[in-house]
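Example 3.2
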Amino acid sequence: MPFWYLPELVKFGWIPFAAVLAVDLVCYGLEREDVSRSVTGGLMVISHFLLFTPFSVAWTKLAIKGRGAVANHPQFSYSRTQWLYLGQSP
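Structure, written as tokens:
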């Protein structure tokens, strides 16, 4: 599916991907300063959930309803749907 919808993958995926890389860099720096692994691990888990939720919602809509469902969808936004999805994540 990513190859069929490559423009949408780039549109919706570049912000979370870049942000997660930045968070990973910060966590790596914190680990180098002897900050507890539970703190850095917790920060990474929370940030991954928050950053990938808009992408996951958009990608799920794209997979189920097609390109028309995400044509006017903003790249990175939190609406009611994203908050519900985040609340339902395991």
